[in-house]
Amino acid sequence: VGCDRSRNLVDICGEKHFQAFVCDALSVPIRSSSCDACISIAVIHHFSTAERRLATIRELARLLRPGGTALIYVWAMEQEYKNQKSKYLKEKNSSKNKDKEMNTGTAQRPLNDQGPDNSSQDPAWSDQLLNDFKDESCGAKPVAEFRLPVHTNRTSFHSQDLLVPWHLKGGTKKKEENVDTVLVPSGSKELQELSPVFHRYYHVFCEGELEAVCRSLDCVRVQKSYYDQGNWCVILEKL
Question: Which residues fall in a compositionally biased region of kind Polar residues (predicted)?
C-alpha cells in the first residue's frame, strides 16, 4: 500500500492498479502496529524543521508491528564520501548545458538535465525567507541574508537548507498559477517557453544526523546505518 501527498501521483498508481491513497507523512491513516515493513524514500528531507523530521520518523515507527522494519533514505550533504564522488556528481560532465544564461532570472537547463527526484537545478537565489534555524554544522556555510540558496545542478552542497528548482514537465500552465518560467533557445534561435519552475525545499543530512534522530526514539532500534550514492540510509526495527 502506497501513500503520497500528490493526488496526481496517487492517480497514476490507481491507473496501474496499485493500492495508494493521498495523505500526509505526519499523519498516516493506518492502524498502529499493522505493518510488517515500511519504506520512506526521499521524503523526510523535505520537512523544514528538526521537530517535523523527528515526528515523521515517529509516525513511521507507529505503523510498524513489533519486530517490523523500516527503511529510510534521505539526501546526503556529503556528495563525495571516502574519496568517492556520488553518481549525482559524476554525471556533471555528461549533463552540462552549453546554452548561456539569459536575462530571465534563472540559468538555462534542458528538460532532460534532471537531478535526484527528476528536478532540474539552476543557480539562483530565492526571495523566500529562512524562518527556521540556520545549521552551520559539517562545514556548511551560513545562509546569507536569511535567504535560502537555490542549488546548482551537479555540484556539492554548501548549505544544509536549500531550494531545488523543479521544472514541471508535460503539464499545462493555468492562468492563475503564479510561477516563473524558463526560456531557452530553440533550434531556430527563437525563444521557446518550456515549463513552469517551482522551488522545492530540502534539508540535506550530514553524516550521523539521520541515525541520531532515529536513536532519539525509544520505540525503535537502528539495525543498520549506511551511505548509498549520495544518500544517508537507516534500517530500523520496531521494539
Answer: 103-123
- Residue entry with cell 503564479: 178
Q: Classify strands 191-203 and 180-185 as parallel, antiparallel or unpaired.
A: antiparallel
Domains in the chain, CATH or no CATH each:
1-30 (no CATH), 33-86+149-169+195-238 (3.40.50.150)
Q: Which residues of the chain have pLDDT under 50?
A: 97-136, 143-144, 172-192
> Residues near 199 by Cβ (< 8 Å), separated by ≥ 6?
126, 128, 150, 163, 164, 165, 166
Q: Is the dihedral of CA 93, 98, 100, 106 positive or negative?
A: negative
| Residue listed under C-alpha cell 518550456 | 194
Taking the C-alpha atoms of residue 236 and residue 69, their distance in angstroms, rounded to an integer, is 5
